[in-house]
Amino acid sequence: MLSVFMTSVQSVLTIVLMMAAGYFARSRGWIKEGFSNSAKNVILKVALPCAVFNSMMEDFKPSQLSKLSVGLLFSIISILVSMLIGWIIAKVFKVRPERMGLLITGITFGNTVFIGMPLNVALFGQGSIAYLLVYYIVNTALLWTSGVWIIAHYDPTNKTGENEAKFNWSHLLPAPLWGFIVAIPFIYIHALNAFLKNDLKFVMAGVKDLGGLVTPLSLIYIGLMIYRFGFKSLSIDKDTILALIGRFIISALIMAGIIVAGAHMGLGLSTNVFRETLIVQAATPTFAVMPILADQYHSDIKYATNIVTWTSILFIVVTPLIMVAINYL
User: Fold this and answer.
1) pLDDT beneath 70, residues of the chain
2) Which SS3 state, helix, strand or coil, does residue 110 take?
3) Torsion of CA 122, 123, 125, 126, to 10 degrees
4) Of 35, 162, 167, 202, which is most buried by a Cβ count within 10 Å?
5) Is 96 helix (H, G, I), strand (E, B) or coil?
6) Is 42 exposed, middle or buried (0-12, 13-18, 19+ CB in 10 A)?
7) How far apart are CA 119 and CA 135, in angstroms?
8) 166, 312 in Cβ contact below 8 A?
C-alpha cells in the first residue's frame, strides 16, 4: 500500500509543479489575462480531440470498445445518484437558495478535462484515455443539460421561470468526442488502419504531438484560474465543507459502490484501470466554469469560486488516499 501511496503522491506532485508554473507565470506578468481563454479553446477543440484519437488508435481494439458500454451505464447511474444525494444534503442542511444549485452541481460534476485528464494519464498512462472519455461524455452531457438547469432553477431572481436554462444540442457533441467518433472507422476497418499507420505516418505523428499538449496546457490553465480566483478570497464555512465532502468522498463512494454491485450482478468492467479511472474521475475537482454559471444565474459567485479553488487545491491530498482505498475494493 505504501508503494501505491508514494506513486500517487509523485504523480500528483508532477501535476502540481505544472499548475505552479502557470500560477507563477501569471503572477509575474509573463502570461496575460486573455491567454487563459485561448488556452482553453486549444485544449478543448484541438489538443484533446487529437489525444483521444491517438489513444484510440494506439491502445484499443474493437473487442475492447464493445466493453465500454458498462462503464457508460455506471457513470450515468453514479452522476444521477450523486445529484440526488446533493439535493438531499442541500435540503437537510438548509442551504440558502443562491447556493442550492451550486452545491448540488458542485458535488455531482467534475473537472474531467483540465485536471481529470492529466491526473488520469499521470496515474494510469495514455492507455486510460478512452476509459476517461466514457466518464467525460456522461459528465459533460449531464452538466450542460440537467446541471445548468439546476443552477438556473435556483436563480433567486427567477420568480417567473423566464430565466430557465436553454437546451443546447452542441454540448452533447463536444469537440473531444469527435476524436472518438473519427477513430471508430479506422479501428474497425483494417485497410484504413493500415493506410493511416503506414502511408500517413506524418499525420499520426502530428496528431500525437498535438495530443501531447493536453497535460501541460491544462495544468497551466488551472494555475491561471487559481491565480485569478486568488488565495485571499478563500474561506471555509458549512456549505463549503459540505461541497468538499460530497465531491471527494460521497461521489467517489457512490461510484465504487456501483462498480462493486455491478460486479456481483455480472456487469464487471473490462480492466482494473477502467475501474480505477471511473472512481478517480468521480472525485476530481469541481468543474471549472461554475463561477461563470453562478454569475449568469445570479447565484453566489464567491461560494462557487470557493468550491472550485478548494477542490483544485485539495485534490493533491485526496488523490493518493483514494488510490490506496481503491486497493481494498
Assistant:
1) 1-4, 59, 64-66, 158-174
2) strand
3) -60
4) 35
5) coil
6) middle
7) 14
8) no
Distance (Å, whole) CA 220 – CA 23: 7
Q: Is 207 helix (H, G, I), strand (E, B) or coil?
A: helix
Q: Please give the pLDDT value at position 173.
A: 66
Residue 247 and residue 274: Cα distance in Å, rounded? Answer: 20
Helices (H), 197-281: 201-211, 214-229, 238-245, 251-264, 272-281
- Dihedrals phi, psi of 275, to nearest 5 degrees: -60, -50
Q: Which residues pair with 286 in a beta bridge?
A: 110
Owner of C-alpha cell 452533447: 172
- As a residue count, the chain comes to 329
| Per-residue model confidence (pLDDT) at position 169 | 55
Tell me phi and psi for residue 104, to 5 degrees. -60, -50
Q: How is residue 17 written as a grid cell?
A: 509543479
Phi then psi dihedrals of residue 313, to 5 deg:
-90, -45
pLDDT tens digits, one per residue of 82-111: 999 999 999 999 999 999 999 999 999 999
- Provide the total of helices (H) and of strands (E) in the chain, helices listed first: 18, 0
Grid cell digits, residue 49: 480531440
What is the phi/psi pair of residue 111, to 5°?
-90, 80
End-to-end CA distance of the chain: 13
The DSSP secondary-structure symbol of 126 reads G
Name the burial class of residue 62, with classes exposed (0-12), middle (13-18) and buried (19+) by CB atoms within 10 angstroms of its CB.
exposed
How far from chain centre, in Å, is Cα 212?
18
pTM of the complete model = 0.84
**Residue type at position 235:** S
The rounded distance, in Å, linking the Cα atoms of 288 and 293 is 10
Per-residue pLDDT tens digits for 166-224: 555 555 566 777 888 888 888 888 788 888 888 888 888 998 899 888 888 888 888 88
